[in-house]
Amino acid sequence: MIRVPASTCTSSYSSSRATTDRATLPRFAAGPDTSTRAAGRSVDGYHRAVMIYLDHAATTPVRREVLEAMLPGFTEHWGNPSSIYAAGRRARQALDEARETIAAAIGAEPREIVLTSGGTEADNLAVKGIAWAASARGRHIVTSAVEHHAVLHACQVLERSGFEVTYVGVDRWGRVDPDALAAAIGEHTILVTIMTASNEVGTVQPVAEIGAICRERRVPFHTDAVQAAGSLPIDVDSLGVSLLSLAAHKIHGPKGIGALYVRRGTQLLAQHHGGSQERQRRAGTESVALAAGFARALALAVAEREAETARQAALRDRLIAGLTTIDDVELTGHPSERLANSASFVVGGVQGGDLVAALDMAGIAASTGSACTSGSVEPSHVLLAMGIAPERAQGSLRLTLGRDTTGDEIDRTIAVVAETVGRLRGTHAPQPAAASVS
After folding, report:
1. CATH 1.10.10.10 assigned to 2-61+305-424
2. Architecture of domain 64-299 in CATH?
3. Of 77, 125, 263, 361, which residue is 20 to 30 A from 389 by alpha carbon distance?
4. How confident is the model over 219-255, as pLDDT tens digits?
5. pTM value?
């Protein structure tokens, strides 16, 4: 279980209702000493509440090892990395070491790593930077209908500037057909951008196969690997990508930093203008502390990936088996080609926002889908692209596990979701039997 300030116990539906009033803190009824858990404990002015956090696709808590790696950036390596005096040189050395670690984790060279403010900026730099750099030879981009809005909205901006974008459809599992994508590439195609794995339904795309197609057709290929980096092995050569986006806060790193891998020789037009940082590809003074935290988080994720993904996949399957015994609850996304920590559903007869809010009151942090669209009342564009009817897509529920998720929490979640769905439907739902995974 995760201990966090109660004021941060919000879901991706923005159902924040925690306050410093102990009487209004989310209740948690599982495990021993439930009265203490429900009330919380005041520590340094904050009320600590125990919750089941199942929204790791939205963000993750910073690991202690990561925080410790960041501290020297605030206390020792605080100089400007572009300065030539001693304090600047110390900062530059720490920044270079972080860049080397990030590059090594994905099989890249340090000079191919452009540090950004996060995944959204990395996606925008990739899509717009390639488009404008190559606009003299063509203005056609190929992407999919299920991309993150950072990619889709960047493409829409380019469309308003005279670019043509082909949005390739997906199957019922949210997967792109490589043959359909190959057919969409034309003489004037300057970029293909397909995410590695869905942030909403967890479906893993055939990125290596798409990369081979793009290499053969000599078209730059960008993949948004923000959601995948903690679960899948990422090697830029094996995937055949020209550009790849990452973000630290999805792998227990700090918010406010990400990276764009840019293969050597790829022409990219900077979208931030100012200084000559990041080899003139992204202006602005780099944060040594954030870079160090990002590097440490990524190194830990790589080192622990095999064991942790196996553990999370078993818990995910247990969760899926339990929730799909509830009447009219359907798994969304590919049944097997999906991220180890991701389980997503449509629940008939309820609104996803109502369900998430009710789970929040029960001490479970969940979401209806992407945190970046949590304020929208429209059904998920991903679910609609998968052929799910709009009214059914309104009942979406996403539960994403993390390194602190336990089997007891999964069993508790199955029971609470069953009871909550029944109550929202106006019926008494029977408790499903605990699912077992061999």
Report:
1. no
2. 3-Layer(aba) Sandwich (3.40)
3. 361
4. 999 999 999 999 999 999 999 999 999 999 999 999 9
5. 0.86
